[in-house]
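Issue: copy button drops trailing tokens. Both records pasted manually instead:
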Amino acid sequence: PSHWRDGAFTTAEVARGAASLADALQALKGAGGMVQRAHLGVSPESIWLTKTGDWRLGGFGLALSIPAGQYGVASPYFANEGAIGGELTGEPRLEYTSPELTKNGDRVAAPACDVFSLGCVLWEVFTGSKALQGCDNLYGHRSACSRLQQLDPSQLPSLVRDAVSRSLAVHPQSRLDAAALRGCPLFHAPAVAALKELDALPSRDPSLAAAFLGNLTSMLDSGADVEYRECFTDRTLLIVVLPSLDACVRAQPKLCAPAAPALLACAARLDARAFRKSIQPILERFLVDAAGPQAVLAVVEHATLLLDRADASWAAKRVVD
């Protein structure tokens, strides 16, 4: 979506996406007695962006199955010493490949390889530089891996520093597993939790959804804590918050009343153009009988704001009348 090209991701947006990828790696590892899969292609090219800005793991063309109860399997990749990585070569991208997949001797592919790759992605997103540099061939990759201990963790946000650093451990036995990576404090910060809750809002129990919506309005306020102000940018309102509110009241019209204050908080922050394109259609659902009198009253109480932002003909029909 064009809104995601308007600026860099916020820290909360990255953490939300990274948490989703860690969930995906956990799912690939499976539960006890289940066949595991090693993705082996985790890189920016295999991460897909949803319409609401969350991240999804795709690109399973390099994946290998691992029998239940087994640590890993022999890797077929980089068997040729002159191999170079990349999509067109049928090999993993070297800049995101774990050290054990290019070492001399037996190479074992396991879920730990994917944690390393995700660590490389997160290092790059948070610092703007690659953890592994100069990976034109296997020799370059091995040299880059030998320099991993020279990386400066202070470049990372404090709440993710330990998790990313341990994901990039040279030895797989020293690496975090996907579950431990998912436990990273940043991935559970209040603003990140709010974004994840917005994703799940349409399917939530009505009482739980109403309770969250009651708190959401204060998060969107211009006087909210800095964590929420940095998270809920105008772009995030358009891409995450408004679509979630719309889906929520479509699925459960009785939630219009608790959703109204959050919707109006968005209206107060966005300009007239954004209001007409993104908020007016949602307001239509608040001005029907099924929404209930409280939802209609909340909208009417903000008539001045609506008249200032709305299309004149829409306002004349839906607000003035």
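Record 2 (pasted manually too):
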Amino acid sequence: QIYPLRDQTLITTMSKAQSRLNNICSQFFAQVEQAPPDAIFGIKNKYSKDKDPSKINLSVGAYRNDKGKPYLLEVVKKAEELLVQDSKRSKEYLGIDGHPQFKALSQKLVFGENSQALKEGRVCTAQCLSGTGSLRVGFEFLAQFFPRKTCVYTSKPTWGNQNTVAMKAGFQHKSYRYWDPKSRGLDFKGMLQDIHNAPAGSIILLHACAHNPTGIDPTPDQWDQIMAVVRARNHFPFFDAAYQGFATGDLDNDARAIRMFEKAGFQMLVAQSYAKNFGLYGERAGCVHVIAPSKQSAQALSSHIKRIIRPMYSNPPRHGAEIVAKVLSTPELFAQWKDEIKIMSSRISKMRHAVRDELLRLQTPGNWDHIVTQIGMFSFTGLSRKQCELLIKEHHVYLLYNGRISMAGLNTSNVARFAKAVDSVVRATQ
């Protein structure tokens, strides 16, 4: 007769304990506040909610055709058709460091077939999740071998995710001067001074081409001077190569800076992305490359990169890498791809001239020549934050608050309206 009472007491005790546990658990995240939205995707979300039929989205760096639609490259379609027809193809896991053929072809694309480092086997490569993933793995790799006090120097301004990724790996970040707001061009003197004044052994993050957000690249002579300062200060160069071929339509020209550093004998990292030049935004195809002092060292460093990737995302996705490998390994497809990237870069160049010419026709106050001297997907307009806010609020033109626009979002149907909106906000804020 006493057991039922004991059981009831036990049940009551357990119920109270569970209630207390539930109360504790419900409070774990009760005080968490809303995080600030991503600068780019936050504006994209505002654009999506805007009901105005003439709205223009210039915030996200994704190519659009002249009808304002996403563009799936014809060569990508052909490659996918060939992959589907391949009866030997599977969906098995890739190795930790990715697709072997994709990695080898990516090395040749960025460093060139005549690369001495490639010939000597001094390049180790891992397939990563496009550009951001390659940067993240690269910085995690550097964090294992550089002192924690080491600082990463990025251009001012730069693509904001670079600084965030460096911080996530435990690095501090500072900036070197890059944009000159007065000339709306490169502050080369300030850039050299800041890189020279950085503590010896710093990590210098450089944009290989089509600098984001300014669209301004150093000349070959200026790259020579940058190399001299980096060498003199024993800095470590890390290239972000997101736009090879997309910037000027010339794969070799857009890889010039990287190849100059490689030829000069630098050890360095390169983060490579196929999002823009292949239009594989959602496939997350990219690589991180490390130029090592020897073949043996490259093999050892590769083992450490694998140890970083394994607990992070285990191994990379297969489909995007197979598309790239098929195109780069098939002469006919490779030739077609080069033609298509020329078409994309040419259309963006035409839009640059169309904007500048329309602003001149409207006699918009200021000098707008920088729009046509910049290259790549983005233009750093020089518009103030207030002017950008007015463009969004009153004209339904969505751009970043620092004045960066994606030229790919402009086309023959909306370029005149965009220029008219810019003219309006410039005059309203004089």
